[in-house]
UniProtKB/TrEMBL annotation:
Keywords: ATP-binding, Ion transport, Nucleotide-binding, Transport, Zinc, Zinc transport. Residues 5-240 form the ABC transporter domain. This is ABC transporter related. The keyword Transcription regulation does not apply. It comes from the Bacteria. GO terms for molecular function: ATP binding; ATP hydrolysis activity. It comes from Beijerinckia indica subsp. indica (strain ATCC 9039 / DSM 1715 / NCIMB 8712). InterPro entries: AAA+_ATPase, ABC_transporter-like_ATP-bd, ABC_transporter-like_CS, Metal_Ion_Import_ABC, P-loop_NTPase. The keyword Plastid does not apply. Belongs to the ABC transporter superfamily. One of its GO terms (biological process) is zinc ion transport. Pfam families: ABC_tran.
């Protein structure tokens, strides 16, 4: 399982406008990282670079010592997986089918093998304790259940590094707590988990590391409770004062 990603001196610009500026950071197995910054700070752009959906203007990204650009599509899918916000497909696929789709990029010849891939998908559902949902239409699930299914799909892909974009969006408090418990458990099992979030107060209690991005640069990176001080949060979001922590 791939579990170490190192990004060094990343720069990215669009139409001459710098979006990410000399940004370096790393993620390894066991990390549960909150990526925070104001709207437009560059979080999504960074995630897209890590997933090789964008090419940096300069700088390097290595996973387990190998440059990202040297990975085949299939090996990259086995190394790092993206968990989108709970989207709803047009067809009422079952949960098992949705999770099996995670096998598509990694299965030989891009074809799903019904028996072996279904076993991997079932194991991923068990890992998230949602095997009872296997036969349910995905379109009938709650937001929290959908998010868990999409995480299971990423696990079925075989990736050790999980990248999530605002995973708690739209979930009620209880579902958020269950989601974060799942992310904590995966980090404890050795997965590297990196998630963007707009909630620094909760990030302090849930995540073990926080990375703050401001105007395309890393502003702070360290243990969540020491990085996310009242002063740092006020400064990051341009607030005079936040309610006492
Ligand atoms: N393809 C593009 N063309 C032009 N500008 C872009 C493009 N992609 C991103 N940007 C700009 O780059 C900056 C960073 O965008 P990005 O989506 O990475 O921010 P973000 O931190 O994820 O914000 P949010 O919290 O709102 O999702 C923004 O100013 C955005 O307008």
């Amino acid at each position: 399982m791939s579990t170490e990603l190192i990004a060094q001196n990343l720069c990215y610009a669009v139409d001459g406008r710098t979006i990410l500026n000399d940004l370096s950071f790393s993620v390894k197995g066991g990390d549960l990282i909150a990526l925070l910054g104001t709207n437009g700070a560059g979080k999504t752009t960074l995630l897209r670079l890590l997933l090789r959906l964008l090419e940096p203007a300069s700088g390097t990204i290595h996973i387990d010592g190998k440059p990202l650009r040297d990975y085949s599509r299939r090996d990259l899918a086995r190394a790092i997986a993206y968990v989108p916000q709970g989207h709803v497909p047009a067809f009422p696929y079952t949960v098992l089918e949705i999770v099996m789709l995670g096998r598509l990029p990694v299965s030989p010849f891009g074809r799903i093998a019904p028996s072996s891939d279904s076993e991997v998908a079932s194991a991923a559902l068990r890992q998230l304790a949602i095997e009872h949902l296997a036969a349910r239409p995905y379109t009938h699930l709650s937001g929290g259940e959908r998010q868990a299914v999409l995480i299971a799909r990423a696990l079925a892909q075989g990736a050790g590094i999980l990248v999530l974009d605002e995973p708690e969006t739209g979930l009620d408090f209880g579902q958020q707590q269950r989601l974060f418990a799942v992310l904590r458990k995966l980090a404890q099992e050795g997965y590297a988990v990196l998630a963007t979030t707009h909630d620094p107060l909760r990030a302090r209690t849930i995540f073990n590391r926080a990375v703050l991005i401001q105007k395309g640069r890393i502003k702070a990176d360290g243990p969540a409770d020491s990085v996310l001080t009242a002063e740092a949060i006020e400064d990051l979001y341009g607030l005079d004062q936040i309610p006492a922590l």
